[in-house]
């Protein structure tokens, strides 16, 4: 399995280079797993190193690894934050080994950090986190105004968190600076210059259209929407003035404003829209885990992942859908033996679907199990009521 992960890393690096990007990629976890498997654990992480004065000190490699792999734009964000007198921290978060919804936990961690400031970088990348393409370790680079201890406490308050390590950028740089000689710095600079030259040459030979993105706080979009609503009110007043005064030039201008504002409204609404698949993608692993736990065979079918919803709604859908899927697995779909006794396929089918119905979006969970036990539900309702 680890060899396949290594092949995936190599393929991703090649794709990135072919598109004019960087070959930087975090392979530390795969490396550690392979070393543990072969019994050749990296001595630099298990031994102590003699210091110049005869004492010993532990290697700081774990805390420094990710800063060596920051992309240029991430370094620019970090420098800008430091110039604004913000505090920049690296947070290494380890999830519990039995954590089921890792993407959901990662989202909660990101929310906690964004309440205090902004996230400058993540390892692995956001796309990999949403697809749960990582083990238990997450690394965040955050710029905030508060102390690192507060960030640590906020993240530790989230369930299924095994460990949180917080390091200040300034502290890491102070530890690393004496360890790097002038010669090493020169070699590092020369190597970076050569890499930049090669990347520039590659880009010149094969220009690639790179998607431009900007991280925007949702509060700003809400504020923009409020201002737009005021603009729409004023547009209505202009329409009435033009109509009451029978002013043709003003009417033409108002008509143009109307077309532009309609386009603005559509654009603003689309800014908040995201495909629902980012929530749906969390559940295949949950279903597989529950299938093994409950000894049930389940074919999990997902439909309509490209259906778009407001991001705020998507954020609230995760937990309710998880509970409904659990209920379907626990109480709806029968065991293989019971299904065969009823003449059914021993493998049950659980369908999670989203689709448009007019101006509404319907999210549906359906299974071919035993259905709702009316008598049992009625008895429970009476018990709770009386």
From TrEMBL:
Pfam families: H-kinase_dim (PF02895), P2 (PF07194). The keyword Kinase applies. Residues 49-61 have a biased composition (Polar residues). GO terms for molecular function: ATP binding; phosphorelay sensor kinase activity. Residues 35-61, 172-204 are annotated as: Disordered. The keyword Cell division does not apply. This is histidine kinase. The lineage of its organism: Bacteria, Bacillati, Bacillota, Bacilli, Bacillales.
């Amino acid at each position: 399995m680890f060899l396949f992960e290594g092949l995936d890393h190599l393929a991703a690096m090649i794709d990135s280079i072919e598109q004019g990007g960087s070959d930087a990629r975090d392979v530390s976890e795969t490396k550690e797993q392979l070393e543990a498997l072969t019994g050749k654990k990296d001595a630099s992480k298990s031994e102590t190193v003699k210091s110049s004065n005869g004492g010993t000190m532990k290697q700081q490699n774990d805390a420094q690894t990710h800063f060596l792999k920051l992309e240029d734009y991430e370094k620019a964000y970090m420098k800008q934050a430091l110039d604004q007198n913000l505090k920049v921290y690296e947070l290494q978060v380890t999830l519990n080994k039995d954590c089921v919804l890792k993407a959901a936990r990662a989202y909660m961690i990101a929310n906690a950090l964004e309440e205090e400031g902004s996230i400058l970088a993540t390892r692995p990348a956001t796309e990999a986190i949403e697809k749960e393409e990582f083990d238990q370790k997450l690394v965040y680079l955050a710029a905030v105004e508060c102390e690192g201890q507060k960030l640590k406490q906020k993240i530790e308050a989230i369930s299924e968190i095994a460990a949180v390590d917080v390091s200040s950028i300034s502290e890491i740089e102070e530890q690393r600076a004496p360890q790097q000689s002038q010669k090493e710095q020169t070699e590092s600079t020369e190597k970076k210059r050569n890499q930049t030259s090669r990347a520039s040459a590659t880009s010149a030979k094969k220009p690639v259209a790179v998607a431009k993105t900007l991280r925007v706080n949702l509060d700003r979009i809400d504020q923009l929407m409020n201002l737009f609503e005021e603009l729409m009110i004023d547009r209505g007043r202009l329409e009435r003035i033009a109509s009451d005064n029978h002013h043709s030039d003003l009417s033409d201008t108002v008509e143009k404003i109307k077309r532009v504002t309609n386009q603005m409204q559509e654009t603003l609404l689309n800014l908040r829209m995201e495909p629902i698949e980012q929530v749906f993608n969390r559940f295949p692993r949950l279903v597989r885990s529950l299938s093994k736990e409950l000894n049930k065979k389940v074919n999990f079918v997902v439909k309509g992942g490209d259906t778009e919803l407001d991001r705020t709604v998507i954020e609230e859908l995760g937990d309710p859908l998880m509970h409904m899927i659990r209920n379907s697995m626990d109480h709806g779909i029968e065991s293989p033996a019971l299904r065969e006794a009823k003449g059914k396929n021993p493998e049950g089918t659980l369908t999670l679907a989203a689709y448009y119905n007019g101006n509404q979006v319907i999210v549906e969970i359906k299974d071919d199990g035993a259905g709702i036990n009316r008598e049992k539900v009625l008895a429970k309702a009476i018990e709770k009521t009386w």
